[in-house]
Design goal:
With about 200 residues, this protein is an alpha+beta fold. The chain has one domain. It has 5 helices and 5 strands; from the N terminus they run E-E-H-E-H-E-E-H-H-H. The chain has helices at about 65-85, 95-100, 125-135, 135-140, 160-170; strands spanning about 10-15, 25-30, 90, 105-110, 120-125. The chain has a 3-stranded antiparallel β-sheet. The chain has a two-stranded antiparallel sheet with strand order 1-2.
């Protein structure tokens, strides 16, 4: 079985100002790809939204979902497993839409009460549910280190240059605080609505 290989979550705190439901800062998780290469499936956001964090809710996964939608779920959960394992983690810059496809099943709330619009909300992977839904993630040799470079876009690690670019960026010029992709949709799978 693939093991959680890290020495613990790699995160960086970035001061985001006040407002919203998130408090003063948002954790930027290092090691999580920003998106699935060749798609609009976003895994992380670059900066906190001025109006506050988008709500995480449970989205139903229907049997007729496209293969690329299922692959995005698998790749995102695999990245989360590689970075966090079963250790609780803050939502931080993880995309609310992408989390919503896993929330309430493979990814569960740690906090009680849970605030679905808080960047500081704590989550964890339910290994039993994750292994039942995505057994290939836990199979030998499926870890992130064994994937082709073409699977990831290479924008997952944050560094000082990214943070400096964020500080000088005009949030309105790029179509929104999340890089132009509405994180509430979880990418562009064409379904729009969701079940709570």
């Amino acid at each position: 079985m693939a093991q959680h290989g890290g020495k613990g979550p790699r995160t960086a705190r970035k001061q985001q100002g006040s407002g919203g439901h998130s408090g003063a800062d948002m954790v930027k998780h290092r090691g999580i790809p920003s998106r699935m290469s060749g798609t609009d499936f976003q895994f992380t956001i670059r900066r906190a939204a001025k109006e506050g964090a988008s709500r995480i809710l449970r989205r139903e996964r229907y049997a007729d979902r496209r293969a690329v939608d299922r692959a995005a779920d698998r790749m995102f959960l695999s990245a989360l497993w590689e970075v966090f394992g079963e250790v609780p983690f803050e939502r931080g810059n993880l995309d609310a839409g992408r989390l919503s496809w896993l929330f309430g099943r493979e990814v569960v709330a740690v906090d009680d009460p849970f605030d679905p619009q808080d960047y500081g909300a704590r989550l964890r992977i339910d290994r039993a549910a994750a292994e039942a839904s995505f057994p290939q993630i836990f199979a030998e040799g499926f870890g992130m280190e064994s994937r082709d470079e073409d699977d990831w876009d290479g924008e997952g690690d944050w560094d000082a240059a990214d943070d400096a670019a964020d500080d000088g960026a005009d949030d309105g010029a790029d179509g929104g605080a999340d890089g132009g992709v509405d994180e509430r949709r979880g990418g562009s799978d064409g379904r729009g609505g969701a079940s709570a």
